Every structure is written in structure tokens, then in C-alpha cells.
Amino acid sequence: MADVTVRKVRPRHLSIMQIRLPLPGFVSILHRVSGAGLFLCLPVLIALFGASLGSPAEYASLQNALAFSVLGLPLLKLLLLGLLWAYLHHFCAGIRFLLLDMHVGIELPQARASAVAVLGVSLGLTVILGVLSW
Amino acid sequence: MVKRLTVGAHYGFRDWLGQRLTATVMALYTVFFLVKVLLLPAYDNAAWRTLFAGGFMKFATFLFFMALFYHAWVGVRDIWMDYVKPVGVRLFLHSVTFFVLVGYAGWVAQILWRL
Fold first, then answer.
1. Taking CA atoms, what residue in A is nearest to B98?
2. Does A134 score more than 90 pLDDT?
3. Which chain B residue is nearest to residue A33, measuring alpha carbons?
């Protein structure tokens, strides 16, 4: 017998541009992205928290930073709005994962529905809390 | 039957559980914080300072941040482990992540207890 191995050329679906994620996968990667973004912005968030509770001069500098805008865009406020979404998405997706750990909603239809709910609720809460705190 | 451990240090389970316990602490604090903010008598700096001046609020907020930093340590370390393969670079990133988070813990303590 000839010692030949016939290797089929298998597609390697590792190209990010070709992968079509299902909705739960989308929620999952956004959980990681939002967590990474929040981690990277921690020094900004702690500094703002400190200034909000600091001396009058520090509080004034916080007000100035919030009012700072380029071409009419309040950059810090927009960053905070983005981080608010990141926090809320991480919060909602995290609750979904905790429930999945407890075997709640692990059937595919429920899991898809909860993934949609996570995306919708976190966006909705971002709008509500964003408007209230703007 | 010889009882023996077939896997290493079991830190995987500890981290998995720690991640969920810290998440629960933060989720509870988030709701508690939102209720506290909604019940503020006024929306100015004085009311905000008074909110965090309370002993329980200081304790709860500090606990939230400790849970956050532990949670971030496990989560960010997982990201490095998934995407960064060279051992030296990974060790460097793990160290930076760890020391930065320890520094943040001191920073938050200073913010809360100078009030």
C-alpha cells in the first residue's frame, strides 16, 4: 500500500471579515470589548470621580473638562456616554451569563432572545441614563 | 484507587468563581448606587459629597472598587492569555495590569477617605 495521505484542503474560517457571528456570539465579543474599553479608561474615570469629590479647584477643573468641546462636540461627555454604554452592556450581558451558568435559558430560542434583550436593554438604558445625566 | 490530582493548581476554578462573586457584588452596588442617586435631595456638588461622606456608602463604594479591580485583573489577564503568545511580552503585560490595578486601589482609598 502506498503511504500516501490525501489531505483535503479544508477552509480555515479564521478571517474576521468572513466570520458571521450569531447574535449570542456578538453579545459575547462585545462583553470582552466593553470590558477592555472600561479597563483602559479606568484612570480617566477614577480621576473624574476624584475631581467630583475633591477641592473646589479640582471640581472647577472637572466642570471645564466636561465643557471642553471641539467643533461643537463635547469630547469628554461623548467618551463618558460611550463608557456608560460599555458599562451597561457589560452589566446586562454579565447577568445573562450568570443565568446561563445556572442553566437558565440555555435552549437556543431563549438564548437568542436573551441576546437580543441584552443588546436592546443596554442601548435603551444608555439613552435614558444619558439623557438624564447629560 | 489512588487518589491524585490530574490537573494543576486549580486556580482556574477559583478565578471562575471569583469572577462571578465580584460581578454579583458590583451588580448589587450598581442598583444600590442608582437608587441612592435617584433619591438625592438636590443635584449639586454638596449633595454628591454628602452622599459619599456617609460611612456605609464609603464602605460599599470601596468594596465595589475592590471587586472591580479583582474582576478586571481576571478579565484582562484572560485577554492577554488569549491573544499574546510570547512569554516575555505576556509576563510584562500581566505585571503592568497587576501593578496598575494595585495603584488604582490606593488612589480610590485616598479619594474616599479624604472626604
1. A39
2. no
3. B79
Q: Do B27 and A35 touch (CB under 8 A)?
A: no
**Which cell numbers in the block locate residue B69?**
479591580
**Residues on chain B touching A49 (C-beta within 8 angstroms):** 108, 111
Is the CB of B23 less than 8 angstroms away from the CB of A49? no
A30-133, CATH topology level: 3 helical TM bundles of succinate and fumarate reductases (1.20.1300)
Kindly list the domain boundaries of chain A, sorted by start residue.
30-133
- SS3 of residue B30 by DSSP: helix
Residue A94 near residue B23 (C-beta atoms within 8 A): yes
Kindly report, residue by residue over B38-68, the tens digit of the pLDDT: 999 999 999 999 999 999 999 999 999 999 9
Q: How far apart are alpha carbons A9 and A73 in whole angstroms?
A: 51
